[in-house]
Design a protein that fits this description.
- The chain has 289 residues and is an alpha+beta fold.
- It has 13 helices and eight strands.
- The strands form two sheets. Strands 1-2-6-5-4-3 form a six-stranded antiparallel β-sheet. A two-stranded antiparallel sheet has the order 7-8.
- Strand 7 and strand 8 form a beta hairpin.
- Helix 5 packs antiparallel against helix 8 and helix 5 runs antiparallel to helix 11.
Length: 289
């Protein structure tokens, strides 16, 4: 991989398996939106950016310093996803799924933002999740002006911890308001340290996350995969359970995909949801239901 700063952007070359729509629309993140050109604009780790592709080059707005400090790790650019796809081709189904999902990468998202996002995701569809999160940021985040447009950072746990359910009424997220405040208070008072959890064994991390109201196995595994970057976490909702049973058999053990079970999960989910015309509800994601 090489990168060059030029005219307000950083051009990155030599990266395989990078498809913007698959990365941003696979259900792992909720704050990026595409325009008519196919570029995506969003905010991550307090920085706004436009990301686009032209041929084999990736272009990210900002400076080389921005790229080195945020976007290089955010897009997991040092990981060889082509190699991983080859390792996951254990049968014809996985060969098809990995080929169809080529271009997906697991983002290194802010841990607190990911926890909030997947608490909100419960029994929700993607458009509504995005609307709730956008309102949360607009109401309580810090304003950024990017390309003449107002964008907002994700509010800190400390800020949300000081609120009550009435304060969160504009979000229209119902019972989830209490869950968000409880999670924020646990983070703010040190009851849960997400940075330390990211270094813990998966079973321990799952156990600690499930101490939070509104966090069960499914949400915990989504947070572990998409927030703590535990690439062996394998979120299972009713739709994924059906896909696994149908295509991988009732005796399936996710350990067969270790240490990349979470990446395998994304290929499976993306393929079954989008390519096979199955009974999966296209509005639901792996962290909902």
């Amino acid at each position: 991989m090489d990168y060059f700063e030029r005219e307000g952007e950083v051009e990155i070359t030599g990266v395989s398996d990078f498809d913007l729509s698959k990365i941003f629309e696979c259900g792992q993140c909720f704050r990026w939106s595409s325009d008519e050109s196919g570029a995506y604009v969003g905010v991550a780790h307090g920085i706004a950016a436009r990301v686009r592709k032209n041929g084999e080059s990736i272009f990210i707005s900002g400076t080389a310093c921005d790229f080195e400090s945020v976007w290089h790790d955010y897009f997991d650019l040092e990981r060889d996803y082509l190699y991983i796809r080859r390792q996951l081709c254990i049968d014809d189904f996985m060969s098809e799924a990995t080929k169809y999902g080529a271009g997906i990468r697991i983002l290194r998202q802010d841990k607190w933002e990911t926890l909030c996002s997947f608490i909100i995701s419960q029994c929700n569809n993607i458009p509504r999740i995005k609307k709730i999160i956008a309102t949360l940021c607009n109401e309580f985040g810090d304003k950024l002006i990017f390309e003449g447009v107002e964008l907002y950072t994700f509010p800190s746990a400390e800020k949300i911890a000081k609120l009550n359910e009435a304060d969160l009424a504009p979000l229209r997220c119902g019972y989830r308001s209490a869950y968000l405040i409880g999670a924020a208070q646990a983070i703010a008072n040190g009851g849960i340290d997400l940075d330390l959890l990211s270094l813990a064994p998966q079973d321990e991390a799952r156990k600690e996350l499930k101490k939070l109201r509104g966090v069960g196995d499914k949400v915990a595994d989504c947070v572990m995969l998409f927030g703590l970057h535990m690439l062996d976490a394998f979120p299972l909702d009713v739709w994924m359970k059906r896909a696994v049973s149908q295509h991988l058999g009732p005796e399936f053990n996710q350990g067969i995909f270790s240490p990349y079970a979470g990446i395998a999960q994304q290929y499976i989910f993306h393929y079954v949801r989008n390519a096979r015309g199955s009974s999966l509800n296209p509005g639901l994601i792996a962290g909902t239901g």
